[in-house]
Amino acid sequence: MSRLVAAVLVLAIAAAPVRAAQAPTARAASPAIEVDNAWVKAVRLRMAPREKGSIAWHPSSVIVYLTDGDQRRRRSGRADEVQVHKAGEVAYFDEGPYALDNDSETKAEFIFIELKTPAAKDPQPRVTLDPVALDPDHHPVLLDNARVRVLRTILEPHLKSPMHEHPHYVVVYLTELHTTMRLGDGRLVDNPRRPGEVAWRGFLKHETENIGEKTAVEIQVEIK
Q1: Full-model pTM
Q2: CA-closest candidate to residue 38, choices 137, 132, 117
């Protein structure tokens, strides 16, 4: 290569515009399936600030919010609905097509519980020991309709609940907790949990004792 050509190449490279590095676009993490059975599909959704969802058809669903924020529900041909919520609150949406947007400047995380229609051949046992009737102060009802009943269970340190029953249900743990559960057959189950964990339980008869030093709070979505 001649010295003249080399000099021209050097000058061309030096004169080329320098483009500023672009920050990557914030994206939500992929949905994580927590429970998927004949009764429900529970998915953990995380959304970036101001992230918009896509309109899709959803069955009737319960949302348990794990963060504070504003959530917008968009539906074709209808006015948007904005839900201002706190961590630990719940919402219920009937089936239909819609999108969920994070209208907040902060990240959002919630558990999206889609309700399935179980086969008629799989009925639930009848509940005779209702925790709401037996201990209403520690089992306030947040939502009750034809598909679900949603309870907020509050266990102060060393509190033991009376023996009670639940139909099939999803549990979303709002706080760290350590409880023991004595089942109807006498077995003792150790149950340490971290905030945000999700569990599925079939029909269950038990009493629960909070053996930790802090108040434990969980959301229980009972399936009808």
Answers
A1: 0.84
A2: 117
Which superfamily does 32-115 belong to?
Answer: Jelly Rolls (2.60.120.10)
Compute, in degrees rounded to 10, the torsion defined by CA atoms 101, 103, 106, 109.
Answer: -40
For the chain, 224 residues long, give each residue's pLDDT as a single digit of tens: 444 334 433 334 343 443 333 333 344 456 899 999 999 999 999 999 999 999 999 999 999 999 999 999 999 889 999 989 999 999 999 999 999 999 999 999 999 999 998 765 577 889 999 999 999 999 999 999 999 999 999 999 999 999 999 999 999 999 999 999 999 999 999 999 999 999 999 999 999 999 999 999 999 999 99
Distance CA 218, CA 120 (A): 30
Distance CA(36)–CA(72), nearest Å, equals 26
Q: Which fold has domain 131-223?
A: Jelly Rolls (2.60.120)
